[in-house]
Specification:
Blueprint: E1 5-12, H1 18-25, H2 30-35, E2 41-48, E3 55-62, H3 65-74, H4 76-86, E4 92-100, H5 110-113
Length: 114
């Protein structure tokens, strides 16, 4: 298995769509439900910037970059469909990049990931 992998996104969310944004991007949201179809999905973390209204960051963690690529290929249609549903919820969406974990960071317990 490769190194743990994370995709990091930044969002600027208008107040008018914030509740709907949270419904899709939050811990039990639509994206997490889609990602959970793949056993290599670890977790999604959602952060809110308390100093800037409507600024959010997500970190989607996977067991490896290879596992993430396989997920994107296998669930391509569902991914793009959900992306189209969510595209009107933000003013701006920025891909901050994809990263490998440095060192041996342990994975969260399976029960917490289910």
């Amino acid at each position: 298995m490769g190194k743990q992998f994370a995709c990091i996104w930044e969002f600027e969310v208008p107040a008018a769509t914030e509740a709907e944004f949270l419904r899709h991007y939050g811990p039990g949201g639509s994206w997490v439900l889609l990602f959970r179809n793949d056993p290599a999905f670890v977790e999604t973390l959602l952060f809110h910037d308390p100093s800037r209204q409507g600024r959010y960051v997500t970190i989607d963690r996977w067991e490896s970059a290879e596992a993430y690529r396989a997920f994107r290929q296998t669930f391509s249609e569902q991914y793009h469909s959900l992306d189209r549903i969510c595209e009107g919820l933000t003013k701006k969406e920025t891909d901050l990049g994809s990263f490998l974990v440095v060192g041996d960071s342990p994975l969260p317990e399976r029960s917490a990931r289910s």
